[in-house]
């Protein structure tokens, strides 16, 4: 598609993509009668809102006094008492709410801190779709007489993800056949997420160093090969699959049966919010750096900008984000 776009223009590539997408949509709809699905039993979002509203309404009501002591003991058994989000227990004062609703609300809120720490990974991954492409366009993209389209390098993280998934699953099968326990840390989703978030920091450090080297080469009249960007793509691909795959598994395993869909969807929310955070960081850093004499992205192109400093900023933010993840995990 990139080659078609470069040779025949945007309109032709858009027409082809529209046709292929329509064909795939028709294929999906044609199998509707064969799909197995479970009808939704109420909205989990509405149940969460009801619990939060009831907790706020009863926030001033004491559950330790003689008036409410019997109600609390009856509706909140000893084994169901949780140390976290105790204020939500006041929702049990409402006769229309049960302990199951309060418990699933606590579980959902408990997953949010982990969810928040994954947004910066998505923000860093967004750079592979924007700045890395612009960097590649300013580098030597030729292999003999063939010119590589920089957008094609985006296939590298996908290939890395496929290789990792296949290798990881085969490794698990081999251990099961040998009778080896699968309780090792590497099989724990939070551990894999931690490795992924740590690798994001490393990838941004490498990106900052590589961009600095590219700018130095430009000042000397030289042009680096686009293949130097492969280090960043490989690290981002590994961090992406480790974090996202671990996040989906963790949210799905921890979520109550009635909330598995919404908790799994948090991984997609992380990706979309990361894109927005990336835009905010670019705008904010450019504005603040402009007050000190030079905007990081004030040049006519990346050869006259300071993308290396922006990558360094992302590295520092990701380090603090990783420490925050370790604290919550």
Automatic annotation (TrEMBL):
Cellular location(s): Membrane
A GO MF term: transmembrane transporter activity
InterPro entries the UniProt entry points to: MFS_trans_sf, POT_fam
One Pfam family matching this protein: PTR2
Parts forming coiled coils: none
Membrane topology label: Multi-pass membrane protein
Chief place of localization: membrane
Gene Ontology cellular-component terms listed: membrane
Keyword Manganese on entry: no
Keywords in alphabetical order: Membrane, Transmembrane, Transmembrane helix
Superkingdom to which the source organism belongs: Eukaryota
Transmembrane spans: 12-35, 108-131, 143-168, 189-210, 230-253, 265-289, 309-328
Membership in a protein family: Belongs to the major facilitator superfamily. Proton-dependent oligopeptide transporter (POT/PTR) (TC 2.A.17) family.
The protein's name in its UniProt record: Uncharacterized protein
